[in-house]
């Protein structure tokens, strides 16, 4: 068997490294499983690189991968600003790249590059569903805390848009830096505004702090997060009690509910990685598998893979079927609401909240 | 009786040899002086005794015990005190605090007070300025602080390196009187001075250092009459 | 004619050690840049360590130093040729060229910082901010049709300088740690401002147009001897020449009365003032010219990397730049070159260690500092015209 | 704005200010004794907090669950651990570089900070994720008209300020304090006075680092959340606070800490819909203060003379 | 044009509660060597500091060559032709001897940016000129240092540093030289030699005036034309050395009666 090289890029060091490591492990797992498969035509080797969640470093490592002729495809980026910076590089070098975590719409929609595809949804899809869902629950007023990175700001923009279209009201929005410790000043004001829901757009570490300090100030509103807090770390940081009743949304079907997903989780467990797959691990796994499927199909040739990607339709994956639109965006925009129940994220429909056994704050 | 005995001391900074094979003794209850031109290595010798510069070879004995490689604070605790060259102050501490540090190894507050009073008696200037930061004192005032601080430790042996540098003639005289007084209390003094005439007037015994080598020694009178010393220092 | 040259050996010191050093460094960097396999990288790092130890203990290092100071001009030129030679041999290798150019530009930035705190003693913890200011300027002006890109580079420098002007008042008044806080505050402020503010792309950043010289877009790949070279080749050559030019100027500044004034201000402001040196003029000159260089370096970097965002110019990036200066040895431009290579290339070459690479990098730098507390190449005493007879 | 809200802001500010001040104190001490910037301070703080957290896990596992016992043990363990770490840093990293340019100390401690941070992230079980720090203080609170005064905040503030005051007394009234200040100014002369130089330096670094651990635990108790990156920003702010307050004495650290906290609170209170600008605002004010008072608000008495 | 080059009029300086100079008036004639003596802490250094603009005066004024230079910046004072040495040596230790001396000559060095960065030919010319000048000045004071112009000052013994400091002050051919205890730490011979050298340099140029602060009475006696005695910031005597030395108050406060 020939050996085929593929690349993985994500934040392996720094503040969001847990997600990056989860993604890398998942991609690695996909490769391992494939190599163990006797039917596979090639042996795969993965080269994982660290973009530190910084665009300039991202461009560097993307160039490294793309310039390496041995590498035929890549699964890359969790941080949107980095992906925005690197798409040109992939295009220039003709390297097919599938995004596994970054959610900014412009990454696929801001260009016409055939090389760029994305398996996870964008923040547009996520927030559209989120706004609709929460309005359906009967909430009227929101206060927003978002971090000032592209992630938080982007989420805020789309959420506000859809919420206001749906008739919800935003009482106040607060931008915070992604390394901020203390939110009491913001939360004191929010307490004054007395919203039904606090919408938080940012990642787990920050979300844990905000949720924690809400409690300290006696704010009883529902805590609604974005995909960034859908992690086990959320519970580790908060303990089950405080986390209880937080809501969040994640693109894709719940892994544990799909046959492939359950398989993934158990295999991940078996492989003994020392960090969890986190929310986007399944996407990294799916993207890697997709890339390998493409290679199996058309051979290790960049151009052919790019062409193949344009035709992907209802491709089976552990996150549900993948169909790329003409921008390479996965259109099966399945968004799943989750609620924190007894120390874990539970799909809304399956939760006691949906059944009425438990109640979100502010509901009779 | 010899309090300090130095045997075959060699010292160097980086690569440059400064002291070559120095042997001398400082006798109990006397003023022993060390004369020598600039850069002869006098201060280096003092620093060697204090353990601030590690010698290459040789031995320093204090009351017959080897102290060559002891850390400085241990040497001080054996009853040595020093008035270092160049009025080394703690510039951001007040005069009182500087004096207190002279008695750092003394715990008793009353003793410290009493000693401080006697220092203030010797240098009324310092009493006037007890809360001034030492760093803002005039050059000569700083010299007074330095001397006073040396006295605070009530040592058995006092090493003094050019104490009258920058002092007015009046205080230079006063200073020598004080040193004599120290000796008369039974304290052993090892004195480095530039002011040869006045030094030899109060010293009991002296050594002459030149280019890192001992070139002469003798009683103060003998040195005073020594033509070589005379030629070199009296001009 | 006087009899100065008593203890100067009449026989000129040989140029050979210098030339050999250039050759070695060139070959070494070529090898390091293209090394990919783990064992290659590790071997090369070990080799470097061995050479350094050898150089220190056998006096080889001193020979090189002596040779260099005796023939500085030709050897400096030789070094430039060496760099260009490496660039040519790598002409179709995108990634090595990118890394090489990045190193060159960080080196350039360290030259700016060197003027500020190596010579004048004004710490600047906002290096990345001024570097970023240059890059953002390039992004803005690069999109203006009629604006000549070469001028964009200059504009980057000028804008960084102008931003420095904002700080001049507090900077000139404060010293030491106090001045450090002014720049730290500015660095944090700069990044946060870019992030919360949408005018310059907000947190998502901005595209930067490529560098263009009349008739030549740097994004095109040049053809060399019938082979298509990487488009980074353009940037590498341009950066090498830019570095050479600015290096010359920084050297000249050091070896002029201006440099002397800077040293005097750093070492003793009071004495300097008593001898008619204007403390303010000297400090302002140093701060602004340092920022000018930082800005120029940043502008070219932005154009090369073609996409910038606030997260690339954070406080920790500033610290990285400060590290280059300190690791190299304060006020020592060549030290900065070596340190830039270490700081830029080492983390990259350690990619094989993945998440452990920063840990290892930090430990390596600590070890280097413990063994070379003054930096890798401590600054030499000023010699206005090296090799000139008066100088010795 | 009603009184309750105002009081809430005030309480927040005081809490935050105390925390910053505790970090700043460490910086002031290190400047004081060796005139160095120890950039790893924030990360040492984080290390201390994680040590405390680990002890807590151990106590839980051992079945010791009285919160006061836990608290005391955690504090003792983490402060001792951090003090030892601080002394080790002084001995092996700071002192060897004493003769080098002072900024090189900054670089080596900076790198140490990175190393500590990365090591915790990589080697502490699940270290890259935030941890839930237990709340061990009584969670009673009084509602004073829309303003929640919490017992734990009061305890923390009092303890923190008490610690700083105690340190200041130590520094200005005791022999050790005198020795610390003497060592700072002239190592050699200090030794000539019979001061055990090494012991004093190590003690100072130990104390400063121990205080950092205290601040870290306080941070943990208050926010009930700790993470490997927590020291980074705290260190930066602590450093700035120490300088803005002035290195004259430890009260400068308190002043600086409170100014910083005040700026942040005021920033987000006055700029409600642009609260993202509060850091821009805070740091701009810092620059302005430095322009106005170039040696900090409580300057050292200068001893320079010509 | 009067004969007085420098004049202090009722100069006063207070540091908090300390009055370092108290209504101090004196003058210095052109070409004169004036000894400024007095007990420790009597305000001698302080008067230098006020004159050179390091501290602002609390009261009174200073006239130099008929011009009021009270509270002018150190730079202005230097440009007027006043230079000094410091009681505690203040050289830039890592810099070479030549560099240190050149710091004293800033008024004549071309410090324009273009001149320094672009006009290297002209710069070299100036460099070579000044090098020769500095070298010969150093040679006057210390023959063996003249061949070590490019060595760092930090490696030199104290006494050599003092000499370099005086060279730094003299290189700009000033009109008034302020010496603050130049002989401290030197032996008799060395002090004597230093004074001879200073007088030598003075004799070469025209009319250098000197104020010298010194506790070594031999020096004062030998070289000064006139002395002013300070005590507690006030002038207590003035006149030739023989006159002031005979003054009872001076003996009491300063010289000490045997
Ligand atoms: N820290 C040092 N590093 C290198 N050389 C030194 C150092 N200190 C002193 N020296 C050199 O050692 C020699 C002896 O110096 P030392 O200070 O002992 O002389 P000294 O006799 O005390 O002179 P002085 O009368 O000037 O005080 C001198 O040549 C001096 O330059
Ligand atoms: N910056 C300052 N702050 C406070 N007091 C000062 C300051 N500078 C000088 N003084 C005080 O003013 C007085 C005069 O000091 P000055 O240095 O002028 O004395 P001096 O005549 O030069 O004495 P010496 O011969 O000892 O050098 C001294 O008592 C000194 O303590
Ligand atoms: Mg000496
Ligand atoms: Mg004086």
Automatic annotation (TrEMBL), chain B:
Keyword terms: Amino-acid transport, ATP-binding, Nucleotide-binding, Transport
Q: Which domain of life is it from?
A: Bacteria
GO BP term, pick one: L-amino acid transport
Return the InterPro entries for the record: AAA+_ATPase, ABC_transporter-like_ATP-bd, ABC_transporter-like_CS, BCAA_Transport_ATP-bd_LivF, P-loop_NTPase
- Ranges for the ABC transporter domain? 4-235
* One Pfam family, short name: ABC_tran
Which molecular-function annotations from GO does this UniProt entry contain?
ATP binding; ATP hydrolysis activity; branched-chain amino acid transmembrane transporter activity
Q: Which PROSITE patterns match?
A: ABC_TRANSPORTER_1, ABC_TRANSPORTER_2
Spell out the family assignment given in the record's similarity comment: Belongs to the ABC transporter superfamily.
Q: What is the protein name stated in its UniProt record? A: Amino acid/amide ABC transporter ATP-binding protein 2, HAAT family
- Which organism was this protein described from? Roseibium suaedae
Q: Upper taxonomic classification of the species? A: Bacteria, Pseudomonadati, Pseudomonadota, Alphaproteobacteria, Hyphomicrobiales
UniProtKB/TrEMBL annotation, chain C:
Q: Sorted alphabetically, which keywords does the UniProt record give?
A: Cell membrane, Membrane, Transmembrane, Transmembrane helix
Q: Where is the signal peptide?
A: none
Q: Which organism is it from?
A: Roseibium suaedae
Q: Chief localization class?
A: membrane
Name the UniProt record assigns to this protein: Amino acid/amide ABC transporter membrane protein 2, HAAT family
Topology versus the membrane: Multi-pass membrane protein
Transmembrane ranges?
A: 15-35, 41-62, 74-91, 97-115, 122-144, 150-169, 176-194, 231-250, 285-308, 320-346, 358-377
Where does it localize?
Cell membrane
Q: One MF term in GO for this entry?
A: branched-chain amino acid transmembrane transporter activity
| GO CC terms of this entry | plasma membrane
A Pfam family (short name) is BPD_transp_2
Q: Endoplasmic reticulum: is it a keyword of this entry?
A: no
From TrEMBL, chain D:
Q: Where is the signal peptide?
A: none
Q: Where are the transmembrane segments?
A: 14-37, 44-65, 71-94, 106-124, 144-171, 197-222, 228-247, 254-274, 280-298
- Keywords from the UniProt entry: Amino-acid transport, Cell inner membrane, Cell membrane, Membrane, Transmembrane, Transmembrane helix, Transport
Query: Could you name the Gene Ontology cellular component terms for this entry?
Result: plasma membrane
Report which superkingdom the organism of origin falls in. Answer: Bacteria
Entry keyword annotation includes Cell membrane: yes
Q: Which InterPro entries match?
A: ABC_transp_permease, BCAA_transport_permease
Please tell me whether the keyword Repeat is annotated for this protein: no
For the biological process aspect of GO, one term held by this record is: L-isoleucine import across plasma membrane
Its protein name is Amino acid/amide ABC transporter membrane protein 1, HAAT family
UniProtKB/TrEMBL annotation, chain E:
Q: What are the protein's UniProt keywords?
A: ATP-binding, Nucleotide-binding, Transport
Q: Under the GO molecular function aspect, what terms does this record hold?
A: ATP binding; ATP hydrolysis activity; L-isoleucine transmembrane transporter activity; L-phenylalanine transmembrane transporter activity; L-valine transmembrane transporter activity
Q: Which residues form the ABC transporter domain?
A: 6-257
- Domain of life, per UniProt, equals Bacteria
Task: Report one GO cellular component.
Answer: plasma membrane
SMART domains recorded: AAA
Q: What is the lineage of its organism?
A: Bacteria, Pseudomonadati, Pseudomonadota, Alphaproteobacteria, Hyphomicrobiales
Cross-referenced InterPro entries, in alphabetical order? AAA+_ATPase, ABC_AA/LPS_Transport, ABC_transporter-like_ATP-bd, BCA_ABC_TP_C, P-loop_NTPase
Q: Which Pfam families match?
A: ABC_tran, BCA_ABC_TP_C
Q: GO terms for biological process?
A: D-alanine transmembrane transport; L-alanine transport; L-isoleucine import across plasma membrane; L-valine import across plasma membrane
Keyword Membrane in the entry? The reply is no
Which Gene3D superfamilies does UniProt cross-reference here? P-loop containing nucleotide triphosphate hydrolases
N-terminal signal peptide:
none
Q: PROSITE patterns under this entry? A: ABC_TRANSPORTER_2
Establish whether keyword Endoplasmic reticulum is in the entry: no
Q: What's the protein name? A: Amino acid/amide ABC transporter ATP-binding protein 1, HAAT family
